[in-house]
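Reagents: none. Just compute today. Hsp20 family protein.
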Amino acid sequence: MASMVPYRSVFGVRPSASSLFDLFDDMTDLANNSIASKAFPVDVEDKGDGYEVKAYLTGVAKDDIDVELNEGRLSISVNVEEDEENEGKNFLQKEFSSYSATRGVYLKDASSEGLSAKYADGILTVTVPKIVEKKNVTKISID
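Predicted 3D structure written out:
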């Protein structure tokens, strides 16, 4: 027989919360387990001639990731669907569910040419080159 007994109701509060402290703890747990907590960490490094953006997406399949650059805004989106094979199983505790998360970073001088991305070991690495400004200087003679 299992010893794990879920004590939370649908709304995340214990049915027998005996004190205000229990109720506060339950509501804090509920807030920490919300969709917002599904956001993934992102590191952005300026490499001089471009940027290297790393998104830590442990357990996410490559096909569930979307990366876009739109007018300097790099967006990384994840859409994870719950496995359909879970129906009919007798879970004692189930914490995984479908979720979506998007992180964005503004790179003011990002170039849309030469972008690259690779995904390995749960880390998405996006390389974004910077726009190279051409300085056309013309010497003007004075009469």
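The first strand starts at residue 42 and ends at 46.
Action item: order primers for follow-up constructs.
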